[in-house]
Design a protein that fits this description.
Largest sheet: 7 strands, antiparallel
Oligomer: single chain
Radius of gyration: 17 Å
Strand content: 25-35%
Structural class: alpha+beta
Helix content: 25-40%
Order of helices and strands: EEEEEHEEEEHEEHHEEEHH
Shape: globular
Distance between the termini: 33 Å
Bound molecules: uridine-5'-diphosphate
Length: 237
């Protein structure tokens, strides 16, 4: 597979064309941003960890019947994925109150929900990724009713599978963000990444934060937290 011209550079990843029009290469960076790009920094080794963690989880989800864009890990930081057009929705699933949910509704972090909650944000940096409902998404032509129904169902299935998996390695899955894409033949598949950048992970016993909140909130030991997630998943020191 030949790595060709760069198509796109995002906050945490670069995307390159290949000699196959249906495949692209994702290259994970160590750059970290928060608060819609206002806070910038570097987390040493993050790209390698997020690449490995994402690929492990995407493969696990595929095996359990969730269609994803994953094709093949190419190197420490690079992965071959199916080319998709990203549906501009941040699909957020929450099991425990935290972050913007706690802030918006004035509740403490750590309230365990009786059932998962799902919300959409419109992926648009200029607007600050505003919360959006199904009707708005349809009105804006972001997705059809049927696509939204598929996305909702897949996101909840992913939550069930990830929550169970992380419970097994002593981690509470607090919340996470998913992105979906459409393939050239119109199928909706899980895309983007699943990593400590996009999930909140709390140690089940100590409730220590093992995710990007350590960077967002200047809690220290950021690299250590990313490493801890890698070790819990792969059983490495
Ligand atoms: N999230 C993300 N990218 C975003 C916004 C949120 O990956 O642009 C993830 C975030 O890491 C967390 C979940 O989605 O796991 C819910 O985030 P929240 O809405 O609480 O926003 P935040 O407090 O991070 O601003």
């Amino acid at each position: 597979m030949k790595k060709m011209q760069q198509l796109y550079e995002g906050k945490a990843k670069k995307v390159y064309a290949t000699d196959d029009p249906d495949l692209v290469i994702v290259d994970y960076k160590d750059d970290a941003t928060a608060f819609n790009g206002l806070k910038k920094g570097t987390i040493a080794g993050k790209g390698v960890i997020n690449n490995r963690v994402t690929n492990y989880l995407m493969q696990m989800l595929e095996e359990k019947g969730i269609p994803t864009h994953f094709v093949k890990e190419l190197s420490e930081r690079e992965t071959l994925v199916r080319r998709v057009s990203i549906v501009p929705l941040e699909v957020i699933v929450r099991n425990i109150s935290a972050g913007s949910f706690s802030k918006r509704y004035g509740v403490e972090e750590g309230r365990v929900f009786a059932e998962p909650t799902l919300e959409f944000s419109y992926k648009n940096d200029d607007l600050g990724d505003p919360l959006i409902n199904d009707d708005h998404a349809v009105a804006l032509g972001i997705a059809t009713r049927d696509e939204i129904a598929q996305i909702r169902q897949m996101a909840l299935q992913v939550n069930t599978l990830l929550k169970e998996f992380f419970k097994g390695v002593g981690i509470d899955l607090v919340d996470f963000k998913l992105e979906f894409g459409k393939t050239s033949d119109g199928r909706i598949v899980l895309a983007d990444e699943i990593s400590p950048d996009t999930c909140r992970f709390w140690d089940a016993k100590t409730h220590a934060k093992l995710d990007k909140d350590r960077f967002r909130r200047d809690l220290g030991d950021v690299e250590e937290a990313y490493h801890e997630i890698l070790s819990r998943i792969f059983g490495e020191a």
